[in-house]
Structures
1.
Amino acid sequence: MSDELAQIAARMVAPGKGLLAADESTGTIEKRFKKLGIECTEESRRDYREMLFTAPELEKYISGVILYDETIRQRASDGKPIPELLAERGIIPGIKVDKGLVDLPFFPGERFTQGLDGLAGRLDEYRRMGARLAKWRGVIAIGEGIPTSQCLRANAESLARYAGLCQVHGLVPIVEPEVLMDGAHDIKTCRWATEAALHEVFDALTRYRVGFKDMILKPNMVLSGADCPRQAPPEEVAEMTLACLRRTVPVAVTGIAFLSGGQSDTVASANLNAINVKAQALKTPWTLTFSFSRALQASPMAIWRGQAENKTAAQQALIRRARFNGAAALGQYDPEMEQAA
Ligand code: 13P
């Protein structure tokens, strides 16, 4: 099993490619649709995702797609199951397997992720449906006195137990400890919290005997808080992010695919590019790419608006962002490309 998983992990982070996170829960996509006046029904969610997954040449830039439970069970309008549609294009079907966040009792402002109960059985079912990669997101908030060591540890333990189960059941785990960018904190605070989170995560992964070459890490970039008056430029984001990763992530990890976390699509591309430029200079051992939801989907969703006649333009917008992020994953993105394209 391990050889197969290592090959899938390597395909996920093939040069110039990254992942499309399309695993928004029904509640989350409803909020995003609502802002744009898009009706949110099972059918409209299917139509939207089908629009994304059938974009011409998507497989040139996207190695895998993370689906939500509803979507992996849906069929495209021609009757083909969605995971089959992706696999036929050479795109690895994936599935979000956590069951969302709940408050951590006695730790105001902190949360942990549910979903370990019954997970083994669900992984077997998803694998039968064609999924070969999975995602679990732990969330770490920054604030007065937080993150606490209890929150960091609780999230790391769950991520490690999830990752081990995935590897035994034939799926590559995407291990996602997300330090949120919400708040007015500076980039140094984010660096501290991210380093502490990754340190706990790799400690837990080691103790639970998770295979590093059979997993992908999905971290946040190290950024200034969203409300911080000083927003660190891409070179500083790159320096801080790589310093943090170099102190915490084993060389054996196959690849790192960043989440976008609420950055605008152009800022996310510029930061990913700066990280890769710096990584090349430092000769870091891992491929560093993207696993974006909002930074890939914001523009296609705004163009689509639930109207079939906007499909082609929306698909072009998705491919444009996928292409730019593919270039950024190679350190070959230039903001000038935004104007030229
Ligand atoms: P964003 O890129 O919008 O942060 O989403 C990535 C993701 O998968 C969050 O779990």
Note: Residues 21, 137, 176, 259-261, 292-295 surround 1,3-dihydroxyacetonephosphate (CB under 6 Å).
2.
Amino acid sequence: MRFDILTLFPAMFTGPLTESILKRAQQAGLLDVRLHDIRAWASDKHRTADDAPYGGGAGMVMKAEPLAACIRAVLAEEPPAPVILMSPDGELLTQAIAQELARAPRLLLVCGHYEGLDERLRATLITRELSVGDYVLTGGELAAMVVVDAVARLVPGVIDAASTAEESHSDGLLEYPHYTRPAIWEGLPVPPVLVSGHHGEVAKWRRHERLRRTLARRPDLLARAYADGQLTRADLLFLAELGWER
Ligand code: 21W
């Protein structure tokens, strides 16, 4: 899968792309990430990529011409790709969206900076807008890295297939707690059921811990799991003991 990232700050991407899983995926030829410096498409001698807003106000606006030239040059290559603007006004990224995006052969990610970009780019070249959460970043670069990371790990071969298969038919509950050696750490023991060797009891304990945690931390997810028919009669009995009101 190929990503083309359009940015004024290509150097921001080197760390995440040259470590760990994303590095290995690129070396294996599963992932091809190309960085494009928008400023290289500015035609004036100062390489201007931003300007003051019409109508006045604080901050700067990304100019239409350099970004449009950059997008068009990158889009001229194959295969076709959606042009996704990273924007705080975009649709919130979810695992379902990451799964949808992972089916495309190529994505073009546009990173805004400053107050935003000239609205006419939205009307012409941008096909989708994504936000990574309701908080304010300094630009779209870190958000684009989040998209690359979330989508790339779903590309077959990038990580162990068992991990993503579990997510795709996930019941929408939080994870159970994990433990590894030593059996006692700083006076804290591992729950005895996990060392008991009773696989049925371990499975039941893990399910209960998942339900307990989801109720405590993300009751919204529990309501969704219930509405989606992901909860068994045993789950509902256990949740009733915990005082859950559906
Ligand atoms: C932050 C751009 C604030 C514009 C009203 C008028 C991309 C992002 C970004 C940024 C503003 C994402 C204002 C989650 C994010 C991004 C930079 C608007 C203030 N309000 N996902 N002016 N959060 N952020 N400026 O910030 O480009 S995806």
Note: The radius of gyration is 23 Å.
